[in-house]
Structure formats: C-alpha cells, structure tokens
Amino acid sequence: MNQPLICMTLTGxxxxxxxxxxKKYEKQVDIxxxxxxxxxEDEQFYARRFPTMIQLPCILTIRRxxxxxxxxxxxxxxxxxxxxxxxxxxxxxxRNFAFVDFEDDYHIPxxxxxxxxxxxxxxxxxHVMNPVEVNIKGRYEKMRKTGYEIxxxxxxxxxxxxxxxxxxxxxxxxxxxxxxxxxxxxGLPSRILAAFSNSFxxxxxxxxxxxxxxxxxxxxxxxxxxxxxxxxxxxxxxxxGITGWPLIKTLSPKIHNAGYQKHNIDxxxxxxxxxxxxxxxxxxxRMKVNGLSVTIPHKESVLYYLGEQSPEVVQIxxxxxxxxxxxxxxxxxxxxxxxxxxxxxxIGSEKIKRRKVAVIGAGGAAKAxxxxxxxxxxxxxxxxxxxxxxxxxxxxxxxxYCKLDTHCIEKLDExxxxxxxxxxxxxxxxxxxxxxLDPIFFYKFRGDExxxxxxxxxxxxxxxxxxxxxxxxxxxxxxxxEYQAYEQFKLFTGKEY
Length: 497
Ligand code: ATR
What we know:
Elements: E1 5-10, H1 15-25, E2 31-35, H2 41-44, H3 50-53, E3 58-61, H4 75-87, E4 99-103, H5 109-117, E5 121-128, H6 136-143, E6 149-155, H7 160-171, E7 179-182, H8 188-192, H9 194-197, E8 201-205, E9 219-220, H10 221-227, E10 238-244, H11 252-262, E11 267-273, H12 277-287, E12 289-294, E13 308-309, H13 311-316, E14 321-325, E15 328-332, H14 335-347, E16 356-360, H15 364-375, E17 379-384, H16 387-397, E18 400-403, H17 409-414, E19 418-421, E20 450-453, H18 462-469, E21 473-475, H19 478-493
Parallel strand pairs: 1-2, 1-8, 2-3, 3-4, 4-5, 5-6, 6-7, 8-9, 10-11, 10-12, 13-15, 16-17, 16-19, 17-18, 19-20, 20-21
Antiparallel strand pairs: 12-14, 14-15
Helix pairs in contact: 7-12, 11-19, 14-15, 14-19
Residues 296-297, 299, 361-366, 384-386, 389, 422-425, 439 line the site of 2'-monophosphoadenosine-5'-diphosphate.
C-alpha cells in the first residue's frame, strides 16, 4: 500500500478563507477536504469553484449535523448542493473535486453516476458508535458496492481497547484503499500511525482552526509534520510512546522525536492516552511498541505488569519507564536522576547535604524526589493532604512528615529553605491567583526560600509566581522533564540523547 496522504480539513466560513489556508500549507499537505457544511449559506452555492481556486486535489463533504457536521437542511437540499457542486464538473479532471464523501446511507444514483462519469472517486463513510462489534473487513466490503468506492470508518472508541481492536484488524487489509480514523483523545494513535493501519489518508486541521476540531481528536498540521514527522513513518518504524490520563499537554513527544531525528533513528514516539494502564499495555503488545514513558496516574499501577524491576523502581516504588525485553516489560525510574540533575543545576553551589527540605505531596512523583534527596543526604519533611501517605513515605527513609493544612505553617517554616512541590495542584492552570491552584497558599514567603515546582505547564505556577514576587528563586519542572527523558532515550535506543 502507498504511504498515507495528509488530508487537511477546511472548515472556513468562506471559500477565500479556505483558499488562504491551502496556500499556507500546500507544501506539507497532499489533499484537502472542503467541508461545505461549514461554509456560510451564500458560499455553499459556489462550492464547485473551489477545485479551480487551489492546486491540490480536494474532497467534497457536506456533513449532516446528526453525523457531527453543521448541515441542518434536509436531505433534499443536501442533494441539491451535491448536484450543484458536481453536475457542472469539468472535462479537465484537475478542475473537479477529486473525491466526494457520501455517507453509507446516502444513495442517490443520479448524483453517484455524475461523480463517476467525471472520474470523481467516492469515499463511502460511516460513523461507528459501537466499535466493539465491528468486523472491519465485513463492514468495508458491505460499504464498497463498486471498486470505485473507498470505504471509511470513523469511530468513537469507548476505550483504547476499541482502537487496538479496529487498528489491528485494519492492518490486515491491503488489497484496496480504505480509511480508518478513531475520534477523541484515545483515538490519536490512529491518526499518527495511519501507515500501520493501511489507511489511505489521515485527517488534520490547519493550526488556525484546530481548536474547534480538538474535541473529535483532530491533530494540527504542524504537530503532525514537525513533531511526528508523519511522512517518515512506515510499517518498519519502531514505536515508542507515553501513556497517562488525561495527558492533555505533554512535551515528551517533542523531546523524544527530536532525538530520533538527530540520530537518524527510524522511530516515532506518540501519546497513548488511557485511564487504564492495562489497556495501554494491550495496545503496545498488539502494535509492537518497544518502550513507554509512564506518567500520571499510572506510575504505581504499572508495577503489577512488570516482569522485571530495576533496583531504583524497587526502592522508589514507582516506575516512569518501561522497555519491552522479549515478552516481558522491564521497569525503570528516570525521574530520580532527572530530578537530581535539575535540582543540582538549580541550587548551584548551595549544599543539599544535611539541609532541611520540604517536599509537598507524597504521590508517585514525590517518591522519586524523596529517594533522590535521601541519596543527596538531605533532611526531609514530607507535607501531604493525606497524612497517612506522608507517613508511609517518610517512614521508608527515616524522614519527618506533616499533614498539609493551615496548621503546618510552623513546620513548613522550619524546612522552608528549599521547598519542592510534587503534586499536580497548579498544573494546566490559567487562573494564577486562586488558592486552589497553590498547595501552600497559606504559607507566607520571606524571600530567601528556593522553590522547585515539578510542574512545567504552565511554566510559572501560581505557587512560583507568589514566591518570586517575594524575591525567591524558583524553578519549574522542565529541566527535570528533559533530563529524565534523556535517560529514557538511552533505555529505548541504547544511544546518548
Ligand atoms: P503523581 O504520581 O504525579 O505524584 P499522584 O500519585 O496522583 O500523582 O499523587 C498526587 C499527589 O498530589 C498526592 O500527594 C496527593 O495528595 P493525597 O495523597 O492526599 O491524595 C496530592 N494532591 C492531589 N490533589 C491535591 C490537592 N487538591 N491538594 C493537595 N494535594 C493534592
């Protein structure tokens, strides 16, 4: 099968808006889809001009609202629009639509015959709501009434297992063109790895309009081409990734994929989003993913699935990296070394040995931090919302602990020369003043504290902002992220980043 095409979906209100987007991205895109249902009513009548206004092949789509589109008129008016767009087709094929998208239940022979007479191929599409029962090959063959039709299945996965199932079925179909795409956050691998499912194309949005398509899982043009280097992905490409939930924003794909590019390694690193770690591992086993970064909330639950654990994982009790060795997963923890390197850089000539350090939080990230601080000889007090969790962690290393609430101020003061924030409080926050986004909102900074927050989005958390306003030195988690990723890169590829 050929390399999948990149199809950019155009959802502008006017043809001119869409033409401008095509001009901007025409070097990276192979084909565009004109979503006539998104055009204003006046513009819809002129859709047939569109192929003459651009230099790329174009798919004509008029998506009904019941199928997730914007067309609210009845089927009679939709047929009229199809007729207007197709019936005046040109002898010169390059001036016509190259494809038209008809839903599986849309059969108007005159329109279909017109399309075929002018060499306009038909994409026969369906939206599957209950993917678990789908036998893809059977479904494709039913949809494909003539060899002239390309069957397309878009589906809403109820979990990553649906993506795994349909994706593996689709890999087997090599004798005709077909399109598979999974919607929503769990569906992203189906869009990046279209080469693995033999999909004829993958849909992307221009960066200008991605916001209104994100809910259905569209990926933006620049991310697909620059970060995932979609055109270089083939069935031989080695797969790596990151699993977590909700994993809304992650910089790890950017770091790892840049490393593969730099070292000329045929590999790609993708987000595998799921609230259930076992489903991520199922995807990896079926798709032959060789290594995975593991993040919130799976760093502890993944331990159950490991065939082997590094000494750090055993000691820390959390794992952020797994590598496939034969048929078992081996677990590593690169957070501790990543944190130590970033912390040493941050504090410069200051000493950690015997210094009193406050750690906020007692979850998976805190476990790696506390382990590293023990190696560095610090005296730690762990502050946590649930006191019991703080106690359990502190007891392992002979450290102090305290319940994190307004009564802990005195204790926090005692350990405040270096404060390390490890909870997710303040992550992805836009409103930077709310107390809910600052886990120690009740603590008043003197100005000589050093504050290290493991969060990196936003780059300045509400806590860091409040501290730096008082003159404190602050550091976010970006360097730690980078350093732990470099270690992972070495475990995945055997090469120094
Ligand atoms: P991670 O693996 O990234 O550390 P986690 O294991 O879910 O994530 O740990 C989350 C940490 O953030 C925990 O220490 C949690 O406190 P509890 O032990 O009381 O659950 C802390 N945390 C989460 N939300 C919090 C909040 N709103 N206020 C204070 N602490 C919070």
